[in-house]
Each structure stands twice: as C-alpha cells, then as structure tokens.
Amino acid sequence: MGTTGTYGGSDDDARPTAPQPPKDRFADDLIGLDPADPEAKAFAEHLDRVEQVAPSYTVEGYLGQVRDFAESANRLGGHHRLTAGILAALILLGVVVAAWDALVFIVGVLFG
User: Fold this and answer.
1) Of 62, 66, 33, 60, the residue nearest 47 (C-alpha)
2) Residues whose CB falls within 8 Å of the CB of residue 70, separated by 6 or more in sequence, listed in order
3) Which residues contact 13 (CB under 8 A, 6 or more apart)?
4) Per residue in 22-67, pLDDT tens?
5) How big is the CA angle at 61 (ends 75 and 101), to the nearest 5 degrees?
6) Total-model pTM
C-alpha cells in the first residue's frame, strides 16, 4: 500500500547550493606568489569578489549588496566599522520614521 501526499525520498528537500569556484581559479593572476601566504589568499578573495556578477535589480541582489557592505566594514574594522554601524542605524531610523508617518496618516484618514 502506498501513502498519499508524499513525493519521493528525503533528497527532495535538499536545496541546491551555489557553485563553488575552483581553488586554482586565479592561478595565472597569482604566478610567483606563495599560495599559503595570507596576503595572496586575501588578494585571490578580492579578485573573486570583483568578478562576481549578481543582478542588483532583485531582492536577492539588494540583500547581497547589503551583505557585501557589512562584510567589507567588518574586514576594515576600526572607525570604518563604526561609520558603517552609524549609517545602518540612520537608515533604520529613517525607515521607522517613514513607517510612523504612514501609520499616523492612515489613522488620521480613517478616524479623523
């Protein structure tokens, strides 16, 4: 007897992951550099970030750009990180003020 409402095994729930770039992707750009050197690794990561192409006109694209901004601020540290935190707080404050203004307007129109 079969059960109804099931579709296959547990493999159906697995979500596809983004393809990982090969480790030797920038071998030509890093000729003469030690592959174990942290600065060479950081440079290869920088090249990978520069060559990534993502659509910026989608929600995922916007969120990816926000993630990139946060990661770059965390990499820099110091006053750059503080400035990024202040900028994010100001953006959130603007969103809260706009939402409050819209709520007051809607309540005023409905009950005023």
Assistant:
1) 33
2) 84
3) none
4) 556 666 667 777 778 888 778 877 777 777 776 777 888 878 888 8
5) 95
6) 0.47
